[in-house]
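Lab manual, section 2.4: Encoding a predicted structure.

Procedure: take the sequence of the chain (107 residues), apply the prediction step described in section 2.3, and record the output as structure tokens. A sample record is shown.
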Amino acid sequence: MIVEYVRYTIPDEQHHAFMNAYREASDELDASPHCLAYELSRCSEQSTRYVLRIEWDSLNGHLVGFRKGPSFPSFCAKVRPFFEHIDDMSHFLVTDIVSPREVAATP
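Recorded output:
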């Protein structure tokens, strides 16, 4: 498994459009056999900062399976307006230091 983190700085006036774009783009993520899970978090101290976390089955699954697959053009079209607000996009390998507890999301 590989984890992709995308850090965004989104102006407050674009918050709703950004959230709606990812709500719509979640259909393509859900349809991908390579996407295992995802979450979009907003910083509680600085409301313009967001982190998108996506678990992929592998780096190749993301870069080839998803990005070269049939769902990517639609996914990309939905979130492309926010690409200029990306601060960092990186892939990480999960280490053996993890908590066995699941953390419940709060609204």
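Check your result against the sample. The beta strands are 2-9, 35-42, 49-56, 86-93.
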